[in-house]
TrEMBL record:
Known pathway: Nucleotide-sugar biosynthesis; UDP-alpha-D-glucuronate biosynthesis; UDP-alpha-D-glucuronate from UDP-alpha-D-glucose: step 1/1
Ribonucleoprotein listed as a keyword: no
Pfam families: UDPG_MGDP_dh (PF00984), UDPG_MGDP_dh_N (PF03721)
Oxidoreductase among keywords: yes
Annotated GO MF terms: NAD binding; UDP-glucose 6-dehydrogenase activity
Name recorded for this polypeptide: UDP-glucose 6-dehydrogenase
Family affiliation: Belongs to the UDP-glucose/GDP-mannose dehydrogenase family.
Domain named UDP-glucose/GDP-mannose dehydrogenase N-terminal: residues: 1-184
Region named Disordered: 281-334
Reactions catalysed, as given in the entry: UDP-alpha-D-glucose + 2 NAD(+) + H2O = UDP-alpha-D-glucuronate + 2 NADH + 3 H(+)
Organism taxonomic ancestry: unclassified sequences, metagenomes, ecological metagenomes
Keyword terms: Oxidoreductase
Single biological process term from Gene Ontology: UDP-glucuronate biosynthetic process
Composition bias, Polar residues: 296-307
Amino acid sequence: MKISVIGTGYVGLVSGACLAEMGNHVLCLDVDPRKIEILRAGSIPIYEPGLEAMVQRNVAAGRLSFTTDIQKSVEYGLIQFIAVGTPPDEDGSADLSHVVTAARTIGRYMNARKVVVDKSTVPVGTAEKVSAAIAEELSQRGVKIPYCVVSNPEFLKEGAAVEDFMRPDRIVVGADDAFGIETMRALYAPFQRNHDKLILMDVKSAELTKYAANAMLATRISFMNELALLAERLGADIERVRQGIGSDPRIGAHWLPVSLSGVWLWRLLFSQGCPGATTDSHGKWFGPAHSGSGGNRQRASESSVTGQDRCPFREEPGRKMLCPVGTGFQTQYR
């Protein structure tokens, strides 16, 4: 199957390489010539275990290639993955300008039927905007070419992204078009030979699933942070408590960290791009998790000073000691 991936960032590059690994022919597009030069030279601009070797292997096999030619990319693949960034806007909402631009590009150059896949983390309702942008471009061209827009959110963990893509615990696909559903089913068939991991739903449900997953994980983090504070006051060992509650299969040991949680997670969760997350009626759904994380950052700042006696390094005369807090990335929790 021929696939085009718009965007060679973290999600786009991992997706493109893994899809090529399964025998597809993938063309990755990026508007940054420097990034494309790096990829063509056999290097990658990010670090992810196993990714560089996979990219090199599939480039050598002729299944994976890179380009800055927008028209070539759009004309190449039946499936068009949109995997561009959605940085926060000034008001905190998700900036969809790159997503909409990618959609307009597809509408401007498509010459045959396309299945357009939202792979970027986007707010609920984005698929409708993508579809409208494509339709507008086709109308301006005066042509009628069939297409559909599918939501296929990613659930990759940094540090284990290749493993997560190649052996997914679930594959969420939101589609309302029969051709789109069958195309995505065929695309992901090699990834689920032993177990059916494909979860089909409507587009908006798929878009919300990503935010719901973030909300659930963030709530667990916040709860453990508050429990850690209580344990500290009572003289209990939070690690032993975590082991005790994590042994319950209804709770599970995964993702019960005492941590700050990343800025990325909170941006995805609390951006105004998630309808309802900032309203009075629905905002309290996320409120405790958000406030808990903020309080934990303050406590971490305080403990970095009061806990100097637990630091394995000692400040020497004439030299200052800096102790970064939260520099580790615990893949076992994510």
